[in-house]
Design goal:
Length: 413
Amino acid sequence: MTIVQTDRPAARTSGIAPRRLVVLGATGSIGRTTADVLAHAPRGAFEVTAVAGGSDPEALAAMAVQLGARFAAIADPKAYGALKAALSSTGIKAAAGPQAVIEAALHPADLVVAAIAGAAGVEPTHAALEQGRTVALANKECLVCAGGPFMRTAARAGARLLPMDSEHNAIFQALGGAAPESVARMILTASGGPFRAWSAERIRAATPAEALAHPNWSMGPKVSVDSASLMNKGLELIEAHHMFGIGAEKLDVLVHPQSIVHGLVTFDDGAVVAGLANPDMRVPIAHCLAFPGRIATRAKPLDLAQIGTLTFEPADFARFPALRVAMDALRAGGAMPTVLNAANEIGVAAFLAGQIGFLDIARIVEEVCEQAMAGGEGREPQSISEALGVDHVARDRARALLARRPLSGMVTK
Ligand code: NDP
Ligand code: MG
């Protein structure tokens, strides 16, 4: 079934088959914003074949109906009954469990939107790439956890990765197909998050509610906390390293509180090309959905005269140690980004559960990275299963640190 809306122009491509989509993480922030873009896209341009979610059967069923999907998969096996009941009169097939999410990822599609949060997205997203599918990647943790295997699989299968993360999307557009060798520098901007102007003492005492209150973006909880610690920017540097084949030494971060310039590429000849847009995920999402074409969105047009001033400042590694730890992992390479990502997911969940203080997240991540280094475990994972093995060990170590708290110098709540 195609998405029905009456007040929209027909696709300029009318007569051409709709682009078939799978949306993984359909009930999340990116999933819902994708639905918004689709609701205002040209009539008949897109058709959603399958959706997947984590553990909210009612929300997933509602999204499956809204998008006109034929198949809905929920990761939590216990949610099967509720999902089936919620879809009972719709003709949409329900399935549950991690294998069902992979089944959704492999549904017939021209584009798979990969928007599951965290390393839970690794296997389904990788499965889609293995089948040669074009993947619009919002889930940065995929490339941080298993960047080498992901990129090798994409090359082997002839699959294309389109960056949906706003910074990478801006850089992708700025690159315009230029060879990585012609790039002198690649800069990702960071808004600085809600604690940009806070003292170290105030950041130390930050609460989950304060960390979730991002000034410019409305996002899921995990990426919001990562944005507050600047770990998000570190994860994004690692993502950029793999996605664009750029060495760590050419990658950098610039704090830009207005979030208008999302990424900049400096070429060897001195030219700098930047990607600008209002901070609205509809812009990169629409770019990926329509690529290489364009579709209109309801994003507010950018009015630079009204904004007046754009400012830039260096990142402060002292107040935001998570960024330093992530950049160390990027430079160390091998298994360190995998370890970093896993420990960070545990740390963020513990912070959101009120178990640890905000700066403890970076402490836990750093300590788990040090343990892996000391254990001689720095070799790069060669496959998805190796990467997930490293991920599991790092999670166990992070949990052990939590169980042992207070750590030396740890701020406990
Ligand atoms: P949310 O937490 O809002 O949504 C996560 C989605 O993943 C939900 O649909 C959730 O289902 C689903 N999910 C969780 N676990 C599983 C699983 N095991 N199998 C299938 N689905 C699962 O996150 P966001 O939308 O904010 O972020 C998604 C990804 O995109 C993250 O990697 C994030 O870093 C990245 N990103 C997000 C941006 C944003 O603006 N939000 C910007 C750039 C990148 P349920 O609802 O049932 O929990
Ligand atoms: Mg981003």
